[in-house]
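tool_call: predict_structure(chain=1)
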Amino acid sequence: MWVFFLMAGTFLLIGILIHALKMEFLISGYNTMSKEQKEKVEIGKVGKAVGLYGYINAAVFAVMGILSYLNVNVQITYGLIFMAISTAYLIKYLRRYDHNEKSARSAKYSSFVTIAVIGVVAIMMLISSRPVGAVIGEEGLTIKGLYGDTYSWSEMENLQLLDQMPEVGMRTNGAAIGNRLTGHFNLKDSGSAKLFVDTSKPPFLYFESNGKSIIWNGKDSIETQTIYGEILKNQDK
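tool_result:
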């Protein structure tokens, strides 16, 4: 869920900086032009187009975030496809506003947006590839990071420590980077599940909450076993 709002916030920031705050100097290429070259660029229209691009993508990812919050399975792939198409269109669209003879220079207007998009994807990949922490609290277990949540002791059922990871089927709304699986997936034997695992580092903490399977493991077996033991202590209270 939070990955959608992270992307929405990033695109909204792009729109505000370029369009609302008129910080066109952030657009690569424009700030290195001579005064004569700048006079041949319709920078107001360039800023408006980049701003609109940011606002539209922010709205798309915000809606996806809301749907995810409402437990609707939303695949982030659709958002990334929309982002790629809108970015390609923006690059082509901006070229009409540079009336300098070297039309190739207008392609530089896309650099800022392209770098921003790549940056967002890189941040997503970095966050998704890191171990997901878990904290024992008075009310329950809190799993941190993207797709994280708090699971109260009274809601946790069928707690197990698995030596082998169940076979994973289709990803419905999550990230799969190498051995790291984070988000909503389907397990081939038991249906929908939320995973926070590195499949190469058993064991795996398994429990059910409100009819849904949750599987988590820490950065190593010691952390996973420690959290499992702490959960048992709190459930016995």
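agent: The mean pLDDT is 82. Proceeding to next step.
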